[in-house]
């Protein structure tokens, strides 16, 4: 009998060990398209880690997801490697010749669309430097090996999806009558669903990068092609700007929330600050929020009130912390969040004008892309990167085959005047040479018991922050499975436009009417992000999900030992 008991005990232990090792050996990816999902899986199966997979997937997205995947833009990578959290900032920077008034006319007014489509709309690209540095520090596989899948996709082509055709034809139409030229249609004007898009110039650039490494982009033939094109169109980026570009390792921001640790992006993103403020303020109203039915008018109203306060602070205080003092500690002080949350009337919207930044005066595209990866060692990557608008400013660098960003629009061209996303900025986000423009990109990790509990993020400009926030509430307060949590209707408010709540994909008519009765304007939004998430389940296994709003694909699979 004793033997029997002992055996059962040992079998139990063996079972638990087998289970935990099976979990430990799972890989998971949630990617914005099927090509990047396949590439990430191949790299992980070949023995690469989450960072190798992230770098390979980023390069492949520069080929198959041209609206946001890029070589001519920038991004952020939040990593958990060796049980430590790392944040790499490879956001674009303003060229040295840029200045505060670069997008103003002689009367001091903003020149319409100059920061989006004009020749000076591009920041110095950071993407290649960021991918190189992430790989240099943490990659296992050779640089050539992680670039190989992207080269094959550019050379052999990939099958054009309906989604890509739709967004390309929208961009072509949108950009055609704004008074600026570009060569977008030469490269992306005739896309046909089901045909293959082969990109020989891009393939040649990727091959040079594989052969010569990062120097090629910032000092080599690619640099020459970028600068020649900038000179031809009247752009600002010089050889010196490219040579001076550097990616920056920063300390991520984190908060203890609901017994877990949420880790997110520091400035020059506004994402981490605003997300942490929202989570802390939401905790003050946990009781009505968690007991209200999800997405009821009351629930949406409380979220809108919290968002008003987070976006008022964003506009006043957030900018590149290497150039302006961002009062992060004060903004993230739980007592401050409590004070801000206490201002809210649970039944009635505050006046927009009355919602001032809470610390007093301070002295001082939608089409981004995100993916999430967890490898069998428990490392994780949350990466968000962008050209700003879909296809950036529509200029493909001739001979190099990649699009340039229009990230200069993320600066505040003139204090108080809204940008593309309708968000307002002040002096903290004014343009200055070499400064990085404020972002909303919020790659985020959740850590529980020292292990990855969730990896998440999304594109969507200023809606990124509220999408990540709502997904966290959907998981942790409403116990939704991942697919439901990210497909659920999301709502957005950002202080300005006044009392305007956007939703996607649908909100029942009764709830809309109740919100109108409270004084809100309620509208359906065409775009609302593309969440790519990984979440640990109660039994320790991983679950991955891709937003129904995009063309993403997610996979979880065991790694045989
Ligand atoms: N360009 C969008 C963002 O960085 O938030």
Automatic annotation (TrEMBL):
Active site positions: 368 (nucleophile)
Catalytic activity entry: an S-substituted glutathione + H2O = an S-substituted L-cysteinylglycine + L-glutamate; an N-terminal (5-L-glutamyl)-[peptide] + an alpha-amino acid = 5-L-glutamyl amino acid + an N-terminal L-alpha-aminoacyl-[peptide]; glutathione + H2O = L-cysteinylglycine + L-glutamate
Binding site for L-glutamate: 91, 386-388, 410, 439-440, 461
Origin species: Thiomicrospira cyclica (strain DSM 14477 / JCM 11371 / ALM1) (Thioalkalimicrobium cyclicum)
Subunit structure: This enzyme consists of two polypeptide chains, which are synthesized in precursor form from a single polypeptide.
Signal peptide: 1-24
MF-aspect GO terms: glutathione hydrolase activity; leukotriene C4 gamma-glutamyl transferase activity
Annotated keywords: Acyltransferase, Glutathione biosynthesis, Hydrolase, Signal, Transferase, Zymogen
GO biological process: glutathione biosynthetic process; glutathione catabolic process
The protein, known as: Glutathione hydrolase proenzyme
Homology family: Belongs to the gamma-glutamyltransferase family.
InterPro entries, sorted: GGT_bact, GGT_CS, GGT_lsub, GGT_peptidase, GGT_ssub_C, Ntn_hydrolases_N
Chain segments carrying region Disordered: 540-561
UniProt-listed Enzyme Commission number(s): 2.3.2.2, 3.4.19.13
PTM notes: Cleaved by autocatalysis into a large and a small subunit.
Pathway in which this enzyme or protein is active: Sulfur metabolism; glutathione metabolism
